[in-house]
Amino acid sequence: MSGHTDMVLVNDEGIRIDGRRVDEKRPIRIEAGVLKNADGSCYLEIGKNKVLCAVYGPRECRPRHLQDPTKAIIQCKYNMQAYSVNDRKRPGTDRRSVEISKLIAEALSSVVQLELYPRASIDVYVEILQANAGTRCAGLTAASVALADAGIPMRDVVPAIACGKADGNVLLDLNKEEDNYGQADVPLAIVPSTDEIVLLQMDGNMTREEFEHGLDMAFKAAHEVNEIQKDALRRRYTEISKKEGDSDE
Amino acid sequence: MSNYVISQIKRDHLMNLLAEGRREDGRQLDEIRKITVETGIIESAEGSARIRLGNTDVIAGVKVIPGAPYMDAPGDGVLTTGAELIPLAHESFEPGPPSEEAIELARVVDRGIRESGMIDVKQLCIKEGEEIWMVFIDIYALDYDGNLFDASNLAAVCALKTAIVPWKQYGKSKVEGDKVTEMDDVPMPVTCLPISVTECKIGNDLIVDPNFDEEAISTARLTITTDNNGNFRAMQKGGKGSITRGDLSLCLDRAVEIGKQIREIIG
Fold it and tell me: Considering the entire predicted model, what is its pTM?
């Protein structure tokens, strides 16, 4: 957001450096059930972002002092792998990943039926294999699918996507260059069935009109992301039922 | 902060009041508590401020120290914000490394200051590519009665606003090519005042500047930082509940309005 560049991020025809229109998101690919050990898992690509998410639980909550006698808690660890960015990311938690982990856990807590599992913990591990702006949204989108894949009862599957601003244009789903050299970034996650907001951050500089315009685009795109999530889950369960059908014969 | 147990009786009482549009301390839903500002209270810091927001009490100190620039911004000063929720301030705060609450707090305050361009970091250059001023903002909660976000934002902004850049103290001259300029200690280059306004959602109501009890029974929190022009510079939703688009719209209106009020108070 603070960087400067002579690069034209959005040209006169309203086309961005990766060829997208201002209201176009990057191509998304989601696959559910990609890991053997985890109770639920998901692999997600959006543009050049590659994200892997695993869910373990509900299981005994550790450390024990975090247990809630009335409901389960969600513990999330968002981690950027060392080779996921241009400069090597020093392994281990930093302040950014602590904050993102907290926000993802909170967003998921609003849809998971935690009251069904008193004292338990549902552990969500988000690993960023490759980062190109928008990893918290990609991570949360993947985490929702992994939770559903784990068979954990939820009110809805949460999609997340960002809007922002670069070269004075309000844009959907910023890429790395637009994030670095643009003027604003607004990650958003919603509950599609009710349009409630469960994650919202903003940094940069936006007027009320720009912000509302960006949100309109992000809400619409979030619903589209949700369709891709549901499709991934449908494919996963057709696959399972097909396998079971085969073994019956 | 949010895991503190509050009695059912207290909860019911607060909810019943809210149902009539009232709060326990008699405030309107969109009314902030009294703000008092003291600045220049720590001589060893380059800038300092103590803010009381109702019974919430926060101190912020600014240290300005020469250091090396980042490679991708060789001529820019560096800002760093830290926050600690020390056990002195509340029974729910524990000793040890910063909790995730403290980290989120510091990062939200940092975002407001950084993204608003409050500090003109270009003016914090000693010699491009070699030496710049590093500005450390450290925030400590002293007494916690809710809304540390806004109290900390105010403390940091007031501390920065009154801080100096200690050129003379460190014997530093400004080097621009062959030109070397002797420097006196100068005020921190401040361009605007980013003000955050935090609201909590309780039931279907949104209340501004929640106190401890209100925060404890709330389901979601939203902090919005505006600049002098009423543009939005930073936002952060927190908490395990959700907010609607209508809630957001109300919060945006209030953040602009109340931001203006607060700017008048701190001048």
Answer: 0.90
